[in-house]
Amino acid sequence: MKKIIHSNIYLLSLLVFMLSFAITACEDKDGSPEIEPGTPVFESITPDIAGGGEMVVLKGSGLGDMRSIVFEKLSVPASLVPTLNTENAIIFRVPADAEGGAQKITFTNSEGKILAVDFNVLAFPQITAASNCNFIEGMQITLTGTNLNDVSKVVFTGTTIEATIVSKVKKQLVISMPAAPSVNRATLDITNVTGTITTTTEFVNIANAFPMFTDNFGPGIENWGWSCAASANGDEFRTGTKSLKAAYDAWGAVSLYVGNDNLYGNFTDAAFLTFWAKGSGASLTINIGVDGPSSTGTLGGSTSVTIPADVWTYFRIPASTFTGQFGRVFFQATAAGTVFFDDLMFIK
After folding, report:
1. pLDDT tens per residue across span 279-291
2. Which residues does residue 109 pair with via DSSP β-bridges, in sequence order?
3. Are 289 and 317 in contact (CB under 8 A)?
4. CATH number of the domain at 41-122, please?
5. DSSP alpha helices (H): ranges in the chain?
6. CA 71 from chain center: how many Å?
């Protein structure tokens, strides 16, 4: 009987030991070194100026068991990887959405002890889209991107002509365009606390262009088209209040006559033919070419574009596509359909 009791006690003790081992083995481990929190002391931070996504190394002592890293402006947190946190160093990345400029980075450990370090975040303005690339004085244009909330100046590249900032948040900047009589087309220089960038988009001054159709047919422009009902339409437009609605029969055309055999007699030094266009319900391929007022001009050059359905698309065709003396530019459809054109013009 005593043997049975001793045997049961032994088995019970063994079971308790194994259970204790299993519980310990199942504890959640993140692989980080078991370093006690200390009193953080700063030695160096490298680099001390960097942009979003760049790696930074903080060195010092007492840096163990850090629990948070926060950039001062707008309290933007950085990701903290425990395996990259030792008593003497922390490796982390600048958050992609960190605000630009000089600021503190605050490190806090598990005991609530903090270390504040000076740092400078590089956050240049970035522009990914513009609501329009054509403008007249007073028109508001919305620029979309990031790091736009601290923009202080917007000027035409190579000039001192400045746009007025109407509103700004991190991902959107609204500007009011100036008269800019000396600007035919130009990029914009945009400055914030980090520095200045130049847009890839060129902005075109309608006032200095040769308009074939904006809100109506341009001065002296007539439509000599065929098999196509073309007129100003206020239901759809990209700029202003109207577009040119062209309802094509198969192989119909809008043919814009400039008033004489030499378009460049009216507008010299043309660099591009530009326009916005939008298909109604279906995409449509348009052949663009030139001829004289009575098909007597010296013709040369043509191109084709496909206009997507139900979305305004910007087209910019080199004026050098068309050669010789011509007085008309035609837009001929390859099938029946309707297209809206806006800001159709030659620009310098």
Report:
1. 999 999 999 998 7
2. 66
3. no
4. 2.60.40.10
5. 2-25, 263-266
6. 25
